[in-house]
Amino acid sequence: MKLFRDYLTGDEMFVDTSKHEAINDAFYMVVGKHITMSDGNIELAGSNPSAEEAAEGCDENSVSGIDVVIHQRLMETQFGSKKDYMTYMKEYLKNLTKKLNEEGKTDAVAKLKCIQGPLVEILKNFKDLQFFTGESQNPDGMVALLDYKEIDGEERPVIYFPMYGLEELKL
């Protein structure tokens, strides 16, 4: 199993057990699922637990949401406008470039430029996007973009992570 961490903050962003693919050598697109977790039990949205297993009353310790967000403890953040997001992204790419250069990863620095085309395409739906940071909520860290996309005839949440802002670790 591989863990993908934010290169600048070390926050865990996703694991390779989630369905994911590279988009234009710039982003990983991770396909999420809506789930409900309660006291260690996980149920997929829309599932129908049998009557024998159904608990009486209300379960106060349940959490519903997108699996990647819940499992990696991603935290939602917001941007007032596309301009605010672009200001953040410019600063993020500057900090990432500096760190990659310091560590001699000039090939990754050269590939950072390819992020613009796919980013423009993703931001066309800016008003529909949700934004997530890592667990530390470090303002210098990566912000992942969540959108919904038709996959296999079903609308599914997809989260976009800048590829060269991630560090891959084998577990």
Q: What structural category do the secondary elements indicate?
A: alpha+beta
Overall shape: globular
Mean pLDDT: 87
Query: What is the radius of gyration computed over CA atoms, rounded to a whole number of angstroms?
Result: 18 Å
Sheet-strand content, in percent, reads 35-45%
- The level of helicity is 10-25%
Extended strand count: 12
From the N-terminal CA to the C-terminal CA, the straight-line distance is: 6 Å
Placed side by side, the strands forming the largest sheet appear as: 3-4-11-10-9-8
GO molecular function, one term: calcium ion binding
GO cellular component, one term: cytoplasm
Protein name: Translationally-controlled tumor protein homolog
Family: Belongs to the TCTP family.
Notes on the protein architecture:
With 171 residues, the protein is α+β, with helices and mostly antiparallel strands. 23% of the residues lie in helices and 36% in strands. A hairpin with a 2-residue loop joins strand 5 and strand 6. The longest helix is centred in the middle third of the chain and has 21 residues. It is globular. This is Translationally-controlled tumor protein homolog. Pfam families: TCTP (PF00838). One of its GO terms (molecular function) is calcium ion binding. Belongs to the TCTP family. InterPro entries: Mss4-like_sf, Mss4/transl-control_tumour, TCTP, Translation_control_tumour_CS, Translational_control_tumour_p.
